[in-house]
Design goal:
Layout lengths: L9 E3 L6 E12 L15 E9 L5 E3 L5 H4 L12 H17 L7 E5 L7 H6 L3 E5 L3 H9 L4 E2 L5 H11 L2 E7 L8 H11 E12 L1 H7 L11 E2 L2 H10 L3 E8 L5 E7 L8 H12 L5 H27 L4 E4 L3 H10 L9 E2 L17 E2 L11 E4 L5 H7 L1 H5 L3 E4 L5 E2 L1
Parallel strand pairs: 5-6, 5-8, 6-7, 8-9, 13-14, 13-16, 14-15, 16-17
Antiparallel strand pairs: 1-2, 2-3, 3-4, 4-10, 9-12, 11-12, 17-18
Helix pairs in contact: 5-6
Bound molecules: S-adenosylmethionine, thymidine-5'-phosphate and zinc ion.
Thymidine-5'-phosphate binds next to α12.
Length: 414
Amino acid sequence: MTGVTDVPARGTCRICGGDVEEFLDLGQQPLSDRFLEPGDVDEEFFFRLTVGQCSTCTMVQLAEEVPRHLMFHDDYPYHSSGSSVMREHFAGVAHSLLASELTGADPFVVEMGCNDGIMLETIREAGVRHLGFEPSTGVAEVARAKGVRVRTDFFEESTAREVRAAEGPADVIYTANTMCHIPYLDSVLRGADVLLAPDGVFVFEDPYLGDIVGKTSFDQIYDEHFYLFSAGSVQALAERFGFELVNVERLPVHGGEVRYTLARPGVRTPTQAVNRLLTEERDQKLTDLMTLRAFATNVRKVREDLVALLKRLRAEGRRVVGYGATAKSATVTNFCDIGPELVSFICDTTPGKQNRLTPGQHIPVRSAAEFSAPYPDYALLFAWNHAEEIMAKEREFQQSGGRWIRYVPQVHVT
Ligand code: SAM
Ligand code: TMP
Ligand code: ZN
């Protein structure tokens, strides 16, 4: 985003040291997953949320890094198992790894960011040797209670070395919605190189830049999402650290993700899907600055339309509540300056978020039960990535005349 002088701000790429040009400024933002007690409000942490792209390796990344201990700690409120669709998704991941990669004698799988054990519980049930890395102790305890083996630590080069020395090589390193959270990917990839067996695979899935740009889903950008990956930027990253990108799969979860598979060069034949996605990205000019600047223009249009709609509804005396106190909603509410006067509360099923205030805008979070007591006139769907699951569960809301407000890919009411 250009400043008063109209000169785009520049920085240095966290991966390759190249020049990063900023294209979107989402303003001052709080920690997206820090839900506050009323007494915490005065000492809230803020940082500048701007996004840029490296002119050398094309990696899209944040300009400012939030210290990891502020985001991932005892009280980290996100529990992966809160969604039945995600439970099914990760059981599927586990079964597919068990069938394809974990078939030798005494296979070993390491998961980075195992959270409450949503994926590893199926691996444990199959009796396969595993280890989850999870620095947030609260969710790690939930995983342990399911019998999952967890090391309460950040995965990085030093911790990966310790596991390699104590437990031998891993056949699979798997991670979901965690790689993009880690600015220090150089350390993670050196760790993967140490820990992975010669013919092992490193598999990770994260929100896809192509979907974010295609759907103007700018709320995928927040403190924890330091990188927005594309096949092109991941291929460059892999090569830089001695790996090869051998497969990509587009996934419908979390608003559109890609699962990337890395292996050591020459060990696996890259699938056609890799070249297909790279070609698609080139044809769509996905990582051209022009495209990213057009995305930034679309983001500002969504803000304008959403704020206008909420202000009109308030003027008409309508009651609007939010649905899903997602990390994504922190970006939306703070970028658009949506506070409790426009959205009176947000309901959410996560106990650790309830009866607290949302980051930055301090909108009260209430239990899911309060959604229907009584139903509001409009519900702003912050958890739009779980729309199918939520709409099915809340059919009665619409049947009784309630309307959903959506803002992806553009503001609309259903
Ligand atoms: N994998 C789960 C999923 O997809 O639902 C959890 C994703 S959650 C958004 C990210 C998780 O990564 C958090 O539980 C966080 O504590 C963990 N994490 C952050 N940095 C990490 C690191 N360096 N090593 C391992 N886990 C990390
Ligand atoms: P996520 O988009 O990062 O997965 O976060 C989803 C949030 O929405 C999480 O706080 C749980 C909440 N949620 C509900 O309140 N009800 C639901 O039915 C689902 C699926 C999620
Ligand atoms: Zn770079």
